[in-house]
Every structure is written in structure tokens, then in C-alpha cells.
Hints:
Blueprint: H1 3-23, H2 36-49, E1 53-60, E2 63-70, H3 72-80
Antiparallel strand pairs: 1-2
Amino acid sequence: MTRDSSDRLNRLMTNARRRNVIASPHFGALEGLQGGSDALHALLAELETDGYLAPVERAWEGVRYTYPVPTALGLARLAEGRLFGDT
């Protein structure tokens, strides 16, 4: 494969991924969130500090991603149906 064809293939795959993301029913769900992405990152950091979330790292198509998952404590809290700010 030549460099040009490799670059073209990468662009096509990137465009296909972008179309899939935009087509997701969750795309844009956080638009209008007061405080924007900083508020979301602060919330996730607090939930991790309190033991409700833990980071998980995975590789997909040669790229490594880290995303939060609920811990046993977080799942138990969700099962109780209580908000995380409640004591």
C-alpha cells in the first residue's frame, strides 16, 4: 500500500467513524449543560474520588481509550435509587 492510499484509507475510516458518532441517538445529549464539559469532568472526577466510578482502558483499532465505569459501590448506589448528592 502506498503512502497516498494509506492516507486516503485513514481519512475514509475517520469520516465513517464521525458519521457513526453523529448518527448516535446520544449525540448532542449534553448540549446546553451549564458549565459545559468542565462541569461534566468535575462531576466524573468527584464520583471517581468518592469510589463510585473507576477508569477502564481499552484499545480499539490501534487507539487506546479510557472511560469511566461504575464500581460495585456505584452500582449499589444506583440500585438504591438515591441521588449521589444525597447522604
